[in-house]
């Protein structure tokens, strides 16, 4: 797969500065995260664990949430 033919919403993963959190997800969501990680790894030619994607997905989601941004400023 060439880099120009497809794009995921999530780009390459930077090295983390992390605070550890523990979450539980459904088996279906875990399977979807694993599939996304596999596609992401192929596209960016760098294997990535699904768990490493979660913080970046959450950050991207929050960055796009306009209502949250407005309410957080109040």
TrEMBL record:
Source organism per entry reads: Acidovorax facilis
An example of a Pfam family matching this protein is DUF2274
Q: What is this protein called?
A: DUF2274 domain-containing protein
Q: Which domain of life is it from?
A: Bacteria
């Amino acid at each position: 797969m060439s880099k120009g033919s497809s794009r995921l919403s999530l780009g390459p993963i930077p090295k983390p500065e992390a605070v550890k959190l523990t979450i539980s997800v459904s088996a279906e969501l875990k399977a979807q995260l694993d599939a996304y990680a596999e596609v992401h790894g192929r596209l960016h030619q760098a294997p990535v664990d699904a768990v490493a994607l979660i913080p970046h997905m959450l950050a991207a989601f929050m960055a796009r949430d306009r209502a949250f941004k407005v309410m957080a400023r109040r």
